[in-house]
């Protein structure tokens, strides 16, 4: 592509986001340092694969990546739906990708990208195992596809209270309700554990209850297993996910690039 790498500010300022948002960073940039810092180095457009691109949060991630100048490969199980819901942009490519179909089928769709944002989530159905198929095994499949394809940067949009049992929140109504839907939080926690052990550079974003309201308020970031209530705009979660990628590129030499 002809466009340049998204501009990196002198100091990183994550966009205004919301209350009760946990952002955990353990990241070293996958970009070559010379391509960022050397004035004469050839610049390269950063390409990001987004899983769950037609979901209410994933769509916002795609839009904000495009606005920042990234090239986006949008993974979807329904190309027709994606064409109708995602913006028309020369930097956007639509590909069929189903995280439940195994890592081998995902390898080719992520090969060549610089980073992956996983914003998948199961759709309510009569299948009691849907949360595990998508939020656990699906995420694991995507991580393994990245390892096979040589993609070393991964951002996961997870959820508040995934580790509620260890936090003493077993009786928290939100923890109970979410786990009534096929042990959703337990499934997400298992996926997080796999990411942490995978060796891939990762960021896990644990937002509170997701809303479709416009962005308001200031960002609050705390260590994992700190917040156990609250809500946050999907727009703000998408901003933080994209900000995590910019954080990684700019602060490529630091292990922990953000608070927490």
From TrEMBL:
Limits of the NAD(P)-binding domain: 52-245
SUPFAM superfamilies: NAD(P)-binding Rossmann-fold domains (SSF51735)
PANTHER family: FLAVIN REDUCTASE-RELATED, OS06G0360300 PROTEIN
Protein known as: NAD(P)-binding domain-containing protein
Species annotation: Urochloa decumbens
């Amino acid at each position: 592509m002809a466009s340049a790498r998204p501009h990196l500010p002198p100091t990183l300022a994550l966009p205004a986001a919301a209350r009760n948002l946990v952002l955990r960073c353990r990241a070293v940039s996958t970009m070559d340092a010379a391509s960022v810092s050397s004035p004469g180095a050839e610049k390269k457009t950063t390409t990001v694969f987004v899983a769950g691109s037609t979901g209410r949060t994933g769509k916002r991630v795609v839009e904000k990546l495009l606005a920042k100048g990234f090239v986006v490969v949008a993974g979807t199980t329904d190309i027709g739906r994606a064409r109708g819901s995602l913006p028309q942009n020369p930097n956007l490519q639509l590909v069929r990708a189903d995280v439940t179909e195994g890592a081998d089928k995902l390898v080719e769709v992520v090969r060549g990208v610089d980073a992956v944002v996983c914003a998948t989530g199961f759709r309510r159905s009569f299948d009691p195992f849907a949360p595990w198929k998508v939020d656990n095994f699906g995420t694991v499949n995507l991580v393994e596809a990245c390892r096979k394809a040589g993609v070393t940067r991964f951002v996961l949009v997870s959820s508040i209270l995934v580790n509620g049992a260890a936090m003493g929140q077993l009786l928290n109504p939100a923890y109970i309700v979410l786990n009534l839907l096929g042990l959703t939080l337990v499934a997400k926690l298992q996926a997080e554990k796999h990411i942490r052990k995978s060796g891939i550079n990762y960021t896990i974003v644990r937002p509170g209850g997701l809303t479709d309201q416009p962005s308001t308020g200031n960002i609050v970031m705390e260590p994992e297993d700190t917040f156990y209530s609250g809500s946050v705009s999907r727009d703000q979660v998408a901003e933080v996910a994209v900000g995590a990628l910019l954080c990684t590129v700019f602060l490529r030499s630091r292990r922990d690039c953000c608070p927490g």
